[in-house]
Specification:
This protein is α+β, with helices and mostly antiparallel strands. It has nine helices and four strands, in the order αβααβββαααααα. α5 crosses α7, α5 packs across α8 and α6 packs antiparallel against α7.
Length: 232
Amino acid sequence: MIRFLPLLLIFLTGLAMWMFSARQMRRKLNAASYLLDDPQLAAHFTPLARALDLPKIPVLIYDIAPINGLADADGRVFITRGFLEKYRQSIVTGDEIASVVAHELGHVALGHSKRRMMDFTGQNILRLLLTTVLGRFIPFIGPWLANMATSALAARLSQRDEFEADEFASALLIKAGMGTEPQISLFRKLDQLSQSGAATSPPAWLMTHPKTTDRITAIERNTLKWHAPRNL
């Protein structure tokens, strides 16, 4: 039991770090967000609420400039002020914003916040083990390789969650009668809007989100699969 104590301490430390980080993020959201007050835009969320058998889907505005959507572990869904401004400039449509809301609802419904908490603590243990083993055989370079390996794993797990949330959003949009066209059209605009295609972007295997082209391909594949005629 004693030999497993260091791993247990690392797990508990990682868990505490995650909880502290989540609490800090929630404080930021609470301090810098407000309920969306735009009936015209909110009307685009009504089909989603109907498909989920909910009276409405409250969406909050996170008052920051970057274009993004967020979901808190408590179930709240946010879009940033930057996204709202693009809508008001007619650069993105209401249905495209609704596809972002559907994606964030996917993160909530699939329990990704809790999963990421466990992933984070597990990665801390893996990083220590790899650093210890590789550092013994490859001094100096070993810890760097261990950090790269765990960073790549973290990115891979994050990309998995994004694909799953995309799939949930596609299914919800189809059920709501909106189809996946808004989801696809937004992704085609997203690289330019967020400037994520810049030369300073990290390698795909270290990115927390999948490549936009891969996400579009997955959405199109699911759309075809779900709309394919069934043999009787």
